[in-house]
Design a protein that fits this description.
three-stranded parallel sheet, single chain, alpha/beta
Length: 248
């Protein structure tokens, strides 16, 4: 009879429920969604967003047990405070004049086109006067450097970042993200954030928002980066950002 509370980590950015290979296979085989009814044993089960709450209820949780309370991790006040905890030596060592880009990797199993993702990274590295750092997913996914060994030849490409996401975002002028909630931090900082829709078959909170730039092909993405480099693209409006943060 001790009260028990489940508190969240990360943030669910997906609007569809079949977000990974396992769940998609489960649905295609005619089975139901996973059964979360055992989680009703918690006194209180906290998630950050209403769409995440709806998913848990659809999977068998009692609506009276699930609460959407927002995300302190991505609250603008905390993001500003958190950035101050990092000193200059935490940032990437590159100090050139190139346009700086961070590419955040997704979980490969989350319905992602891995080869297409690597082809996009290759194409970006070919853009003159750019410096790109790839950041693997927090919980394990990274680039198979043996499989894509040719990418080691680019002097302006780091395939595996050895610094945290917070200083990486501060360092970057452009962030590329489609499978991680870390994109929210880049949006709070007002970075140019590119959402390459064509690299996966999920739906995310970024897709229909006014906070990121959606691209639909490799050529589209490269063209956008070149326009940002040349100052031909304006950053997103603060009104759209405020609406997005209230929603998420």
């Amino acid at each position: 009879n001790i009260p028990t509370y489940c508190l969240p980590h990360g943030q669910n950015i997906y609007k569809n429920y079949d977000v990974n290979h396992y769940l998609r296979k489960l649905q295609h085989s005619g089975n139901n969604w996973p059964d979360f009814s055992s989680r009703n044993e918690f006194s209180c089960y906290v998630v950050q967003t209403n769409h995440h709450r709806a998913m848990h209820i659809a999977w068998g949780m009692n609506p009276d047990k699930v609460y959407a309370l927002g995300s302190l991790r991505f609250d603008p006040k905390w993001i500003q405070e958190n950035a101050l905890l990092y000193e200059k030596y935490h940032s990437p060592h590159h100090t050139g004049t190139e346009t700086t880009i961070v590419f955040f990797l997704p979980h490969w199993r989350y319905n992602v086109d891995e080869s297409g993702t690597m082809e996009l990274i290759d194409s970006i590295a070919r853009i003159p006067d750019t410096f790109i750092i790839v950041k693997g997913h927090t919980r394990g996914d990274a680039i198979d450097e043996h499989k894509f060994s040719h990418l080691r030849d680019y002097p302006n490409l780091v395939l595996s970042a050895d610094v945290d996401s917070v200083p990486l975002i501060n360092w970057a002028q452009i962030t590329i993200n489609f499978g991680s909630s870390i994109g929210i931090e880049a949006i709070v900082h007002g970075k140019f954030t590119i959402n390459p829709l064509f690299l996966h078959s999920n739906e995310t909170v970024f897709d229909d928002s006014e906070v990121s730039f959606n691209t639909h092909s490799i050529d589209d993405s490269v063209s956008l980066i070149k326009k940002i480099k040349n100052g031909e693209v304006l950053s997103r409006s603060s009104t759209g950002k405020e609406a997005f943060l209230r929603s998420e």
